[in-house]
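# nightly structure sweep
# worker-07 picked up a monomer target from the shared queue
# config: single-sequence mode, recycle default, output format = structure tokens
# input follows
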Amino acid sequence: MRLKGRQVSDDEAAIAEWSQASMDLMEEIRPFLVGKGPEVQSSALADLTAMWLSGMFLTDPRTGEISRRATDEMREVALAMFIKVVRELTPINEEMYTKPLLDRQRAQ
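# output follows
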């Protein structure tokens, strides 16, 4: 498959597609958060994260019930990966959004 004029693997194409879908969703959500205080923003994002995590579960094939131990372990791994990505994205977002905002405020 070709992406932006270069040959890419199926994995790279899938990552690019996922990344674009993520950016599109972020742009749809952003207007709902802009102008809200950090307390409201963090509360909403925490609730969305909890909803995301609650949708991740493993069932016991014998009973069909949620396997608490396996589910909790999987959620811990997912949450650790999520926090890692948040930490990696924070300085990037600071450069893209926070610094330009501060520059505009200083210029006024």
